[in-house]
Known about the structure:
Pathway: Amino-acid biosynthesis; L-histidine biosynthesis; L-histidine from 5-phospho-alpha-D-ribose 1-diphosphate: step 8/9
Strand content: 25-35%
Keywords: Amino-acid biosynthesis, Histidine biosynthesis, Hydrolase, Magnesium, Metal-binding
EC number: 3.1.3.15
Strand order of the largest sheet: 4-3-5-6-7-8-9-10
Structural class: alpha+beta
Protein name: Histidinol-phosphatase
CATH superfamily of the largest domain: Fructose-1,6-Bisphosphatase, subunit A, domain 1
Amino acid sequence: MTLSADRLAALDAFIVELNAASAGAILPLFRSDHGLEDKAAGKNLPRDTHAAFDPVTEADRGAEAAIRKLIAERFPEHGVIGEEYGEDRPDAEFVWVLDPVDGTRAFISGLPLWTTLIGLRHQGRPVLGSIGQPYLDELYVGSAAGGSRLIARGAEKALRVRPCAVLTDAIIATTDPEACFDGAELGAWRQVRAAAKLARLGCDAYAYAMVAAGTMDMVIEAGLKSWDVEAAIPLIEGAGGVVTDWRGAPIGQHGGQMAIAGDQRVLDEALVALKRSAK
């Protein structure tokens, strides 16, 4: 079934509503009593892994609940996949993929680098995605129809990635290389990092938005879930960028290793190193 432009536009407007609902649940808890829990407590995980501390807050749960409630009211036939409350009809024609607070570690640290990720699949293909940072009043939205935009402080502007022909000119990012990459992956990251002009750490999905906005050039991650990346695909592609796995292939529906780039040329250069550790 073809997704018409009118229907996609209506869903685009709805994703803005969903972000407003999630912001209403999150913002009162930011830099406040957010009810922190550790989902990894009692699991005896190695302390040198990212999963050894797995924080969740009332903001994560409340925001996803608010988003799911609106979807159920407006589109009861749609499926939902969310980090906090699991899967509901994941094989539906339309499926929303949610990470209510991506960057919970930043959230509990009081850093405004966390985001709300909302993606929409149509027949298994990502067609709409948003990255919201409501504390900064920023909402980045991208559509399969082409084009991405920033909605901020009552105004909208189009987003476009910037050209970057070589890695030595690139500003790159990852979340936490020591905790998130295994040995081979860490070696690949270090090789790319050694060639790049500048690297930033700990930005989580906010770095994806910066690639779409043309202020950064590439993000490299591993160990992702579907909700960590699907919202970014329409946003980055709508702004003229690319999203692949570490082999340069489409990332699919299950996360894993990911590279986001504003320019195919800089991605191709990085893939020389990344492919050696691709899974």
